[in-house]
Structures are given as C-alpha cells and as structure tokens.
C-alpha cells in the first residue's frame, strides 16, 4: 500500500470519492478535475503509463486520451481533466469506438480489454467530450506494441 504524503492528504481532504479499482483510487477535485492516487506499485505503473502515453502521443491519438494536468514525478498521483458525458452504447458510437481502436493499433498502441471490446454494453473507461469525441479516461493498462 502506498502511503499518502502531506500533499496528497491535503489534496483529497473533503473531496468526493468517485471510485476505486484494484490499483488506484479516484477523487473529484471539483473544477472539472480528478485526482488518481496509486494504491500499489501497479497503480504507480498505471499512472506512469498514462503520463508517458499522453506526453508522447501525437495529436490524432492525444485528443482521445483524458488530458493530464499535473502529476507526481514518482507517479504516486495524477491530476486529470474530468469528463462527465457518458459514452452512449449505441451503434453510432460503437462504430466510432471501433475506428478509434483501429487508430490506436495503427499507432502502435494496444488498448485495454475494456476499450477493445467495443461490442459489449459495459464501457466504464469511456466518455464523450463536449464535441462528442470519444475519450478514454483510464488508459493505464494500455500497452505499446513492439
């Protein structure tokens, strides 16, 4: 378990808990921002993957990844933009998602299973931007193809 330092405790004090996975906890910081805190070494790797992937991606890919605002240099936490608009699991958007998965593959990125399985109704890691562009809010388990 990763120990919270003074900065992290101050950042999450009084903030709304949004959810948790096996490796990270997410808080709503307000002002359209979320704070992802690593619970373990694997959570740190997920934060690191998100930061590196976001910073190194070209614009056609980056515009589909949740924007990273700030992060800890040891990757214990990441602050990201919050996207509220749920991904509508209807044929029009499943088609957009299928194209996005192909775009990721073409750029050497293997999305996590929750994004690749665009034919399933369960899409917790997807949202829409205000312009209705599909955005991935959790890409810590994505991999670069070698």
Record the SSE blueprint:
Layout: H1 6-12, E1 16-20, E2 24-30, E3 33-38, H2 41-56, H3 59-62, E4 68-71, E5 77-81, E6 85-86, H4 91-106, E7 109-110, H5 113-116, E8 126-128, E9 134-136, E10 143-144
Antiparallel strand pairs: 1-2, 2-3, 3-5, 4-5, 6-8, 7-10, 8-9
Largest sheet, in brief, is:
5 strands, antiparallel
Number of distinct beta strands: 10
Q: Kindly state the percentage of residues in helix.
A: 25-40%
pLDDT averaged over residues: 93
Which value, in Å, is the CA radius of gyration?
15 Å
Low-confidence runs (pLDDT<50, min 5 residues)?
Answer: none
Task: Please identify the structural class as seen in this structure.
Answer: alpha+beta
Strand order of the largest sheet: 1-2-3-5-4
Termini separation comes to: 31 Å
N-to-C SSE string, H for helix and E for strand: HEEEHHEEEHEHEEE
The dominant shape is globular
Number of helices: 5
Beta-strand content bin: 25-35%
Provide a descriptive summary of the structure in words:
The chain is α+β, with helices and mostly antiparallel strands. The strands form three sheets. The chain has a five-stranded antiparallel sheet. A hairpin with a 3-residue loop joins strand 1 and strand 2. It is globular and about 45 Å long. Helices cover 32% and strands 27% of the residues.
